[in-house]
Design brief:
Oligomer: single chain
Strand content: under 5%
Distance between the termini: 48 Å
Largest sheet: none
Mean pLDDT: 84
Number of helices: 2
Helix content: 55-70%
Shape: rod-shaped
């Protein structure tokens, strides 16, 4: 593999991981909505 292709592959992976991590941290830091009932705000939110 040429060095240019390796650099582009690493750059693309880093960008995707950074964007994913940014949105993951936004979800973790956000709380339940203000208008939610206490019963609706409790986890887990499954079926």
């Amino acid at each position: 593999m040429q060095s240019t292709a390796l650099f582009m592959m690493l750059l693309a992976n880093i960008v995707v991981i950074a964007i994913t991590g940014y949105f993951f941290m936004r979800v973790l830091r956000s709380g339940p909505p203000d208008h939610a009932d206490e019963d609706d705000a409790n986890f887990p939110r499954g079926g």
